[in-house]
Design a protein that fits this description.
Layout: E1 2-5, E2 8-12, E3 37-44, E4 47-48, E5 52-55, H1 66-70, E6 73-75, E7 78-82, E8 88-91, H2 93-106, H3 114-127, E9 139-148, E10 161-170, E11 178-182, H4 200-215, E12 220-224, E13 232-235, E14 239-244, E15 247-251, H5 261-272, E16 276-280, H6 284-292, E17 298-303, E18 307-316, E19 319-322, H7 332-343, E20 354-357
Parallel strand pairs: 2-5, 11-12, 11-18, 15-16
Antiparallel strand pairs: 1-2, 3-4, 3-5, 3-10, 6-9, 7-8, 7-9, 8-20, 9-10, 12-13, 14-15, 14-17, 17-18, 18-19
Length: about 350
Amino acid sequence: MSATTSSFTIETIKTKHSRIHEVNWEKLEFGKIFSDHMLVMDYKDGKWQDPVIMPYGTIPMAPSISALHYGQAIFEGMKAYRMVDGGVSIFRPKKNAERMNKSAARLCMPTIPVELFIECVAQLVSIDREWIPRGEGESLYIRPHMFATDEFVGVRPSDTYKFVVFTCPVSKYYTKELRVKIETTYTRASKGGTGAAKAAGNYAASLFPTQVANNAGFDQVLWTDSQTHEYFEESGTMNIIFRSGKVLLTPAPSDSILDGVTRDTILQVARDWGFLVEERRISVREIVDLMKEGRLHAAFGVGTAATITPIRVIHYDGVDYTLPAYEEGIFAPKVSAYLSALKRGLVEDIHSWNYRID
């Protein structure tokens, strides 16, 4: 079986033994259950080869491949949803394709034509569409990633790469309101670095500070800038948005802040609803003052995996500041419900964000 997109042919080798009957749909754990198939596409001789959809499984590789030594590895996170009319939609795949190409350029990796990226993802999702869960807050998580494959121990960009996409049925990433601390010692990314790329190394750098915060009783950290630790950047593995009345405050994307797809979506919805959105440098002092005055009404992390995750406690300089309960907010619960309905075709898709597979 094969399908043609542009000048590429996507070959499909279906599994002979589906694992879908092994899934406990009542207890989905995020990122631990993988669908039947994956897509693999190799880059060599200066061009992408035809993609192949094959049974999910291990990929043979040499211990000398450059990704393991020099970190040329990037990824994306996307989701597919089951719509009420029986169709399937992938949410804003063009934005993910464009961002992956920005990440690739920053790490000296080859870009992928946007049309090809979307078609690869769509074909894979279509084949494993029965893996899309039906419960509230559930979806099919999609993980496209690329890594360098040259068998060469030398510091230079690889000449060969592998692009792989797999999917997994998931429930919510976070199931509670978060306790977070403002991080003033460690740094996620620095000015001029790779913070704006979805690079694997960025997440490796975040693990130890997060572990330190976890050991102190916090769920995540609020990252601050590397130079002064006076300005907010992100929230753990998510973008951060604060709400004061009808104003949303969020750090503007920069070379150290990821331009999140969920962030962009939520800010557009906010503007549609008449909220004032301020994308700028947000200082720690400004937010602490708002909390002291009782004028910070909500804070939440936003991302593909987490969607919208409310923050209940923000810790800074030895003090816990407790924000209003999530149910009392006027924005985050409302936009969360709206986006859930939008992705399932229950409300009009005025921005054409759903990429339908019928």
